Amino acid sequence: MTSLSQALRWATGELTAAGVETPENDAVLMAGHLMGLDRGEVQAKAIIGADVPQGFEPMVQQRTQRVPLQHLTGTAPFRGIELAVGPGVFIPRPETELLVELATQRLRADLAEGIGRPVVMDLCTGSGAIAAAVAHEVPQARIHAVELSDEALVWAQRNLAPYKRVELRQADATEVPGDLVGRVDVVVTNPPYVPDSEPPVSPEVTDHDPAMALWGGGADGMRLPVAIIRAAAQVLRTGGYMVMEHAESQADAVHQAYEGNGFTSVELHHDLTGRPRATSAVLAAGEPESDGPDVNHHQHGVQQ
After folding, report:
1. Does some domain include residue 46?
2. Residue 159 annotated as binding?
3. Based on CB atoms within 10 Å of each CB, which residue in 39, 43, 147, 185 is the most buried?
4. What are the backbone dihedrals phi and psi of residue 73, each rounded to the nearest 5 degrees, phi first?
5. Per the annotation, does 200 bind a ligand?
6. Are residue 166 and residue 55 in the same domain, yes or no?
7. What are the Release factor glutamine methyltransferase N-terminal domain coordinates in residue numbering (predicted)?
């Protein structure tokens, strides 16, 4: 391979043969990472016959082994910011940006109503993606990002360091922090929710995403989501807002868990592909009802 254009064609063929879903895109992004250029600049360089960047071939070979692209570049784009990611943390997905959109809409409405410093909890923060994006877009908000995993916490600390209004807590998202009971305006969470009955098949997920970030517990994957909804009902103020990501198959179960824990105004939200992706609700006045068996908190990881 004597030119960048030849290298990109070769890489696209190799990645296609390996079953990578977006081979051409990944080839361009890897070249761009090595060259310090964006996608358009790489394509322009290819047209004028630029040289192949050093390290391109071994990086492509790693990608053919289904090492996630984000592990190779060390970054993941999310809602207009770049996050540091790598082994030990769940890679944030574009569809999770819907949670940020919904949470920021609610926060801006709260600010318009005179709440000067709304309080947010991002439960199962993982890489810190949601907390960082909300802090970036609503700098008035005070955010408590909660994560249990030691490995994920390292990445969250790195990604949240620039945001002084974010407090990172190492804790179980199913437990209720006493200092925040009834004080939170918005809870947002992308918890582990994969059902035992719907295991992922992508090698990037099965071989590289932490298991504790995936499995929700039980055939329907609802054990952890239900426990998190129950905990959120304790920290939210009356009229507070919660939004949770979930699997398509869990929409009805999440709706029921909200209603069983004192929430009202339950609303299902679809992502850009039209799939049921998240459900929001508002905490009503009064004591929540019990919803399902207690969870043995410390047997489950919580990570986004």
Report:
1. yes
2. no
3. 147
4. -90, -20
5. no
6. no
7. 6-74
